[in-house]
Amino acid sequence: MEIGVERVVHLSSMGAHLDRGTGFILGSHHTERILNELSDINITYLRPSYFYTNLYSFVDMIKSLSSIGANYGGDDKIAMVHPQDIATAAAEEIETPATGFKVRYVGSDDCTANEAAQILGIAIGKPDLKWVTVTNEQMQAGLEHKGMPAHIAANFVEMFTSIHSGALRKDSDLHQPVAMGKVKLADFASEFAAAF
User: Fold this and answer.
1) How many domains does the chain have?
2) Cβ atoms of residues 131 and 113 within 8 Å
3) Is residue 2 included in any domain, yes or no?
4) What residues are paired with 42 via a beta bridge?
5) Taking the model in full, what pTM does it have?
């Protein structure tokens, strides 16, 4: 089928190399597989890491419990990215000639969940903020208690489990970004504090 498109920069996700065990990210895996079947097209897959903006989902928890809790955390390493750095990477790829298929991981910072909690805690005036790791069952129950349908919650639990196990970042650890983005977690912490 002739589509007339020669260059694609596709926003995928870290973990798209996995064909199971990633919850919602499995959609990115399937999309990449479909795009790989196209011929006469040059594709760059941008695979960003954990968005800083995901941290906003913890605001209410921090306010009520003075901690962050999820089925990943503690000393788990979390590569994170600011949307601005994703946009910069996308623009660079659009302007750069490419042939065939290419994967580009995009990240801004890399730290443990405990380190992230400390950075955010200082920014919001809670320097003792901790990131507690809960069980998958506790995570599932907590999400359902908030009104999330069980099958949606299960996808989140599975995705977060892949962060906790390190499976989600395994390929990106082997293919590090050429350069990390400019917006570090300490920079984002001021945005977080303003929303808090």
Assistant:
1) 1
2) yes
3) no
4) 7
5) 0.90
The C-alpha angle 10, 20, 110, rounded to 5 degrees, equals 60
Q: Tokens 């006469």 belong to which residue?
A: 40
Give the tens place of pLDDT for each residue, 7-61.
Answer: 899 999 999 999 999 999 999 999 999 999 988 889 999 999 999 999 999 999 9
Query: What DSSP designation does 80 have?
Result: E
- Angstrom CA distances, 5 to 29, 42, 76, 126, stand at 21, 9, 41, 51
**CATH number for the domain that contains residue 131:** 3.40.50.720
**CA separation for the pair 116, 84 (Å, rounded):** 19
CA 177 to chain centre: 14
The parent domain of residue 52 ranges over 7-195
Q: CA nearest 36: which of 80, 100, 96, 92?
A: 100
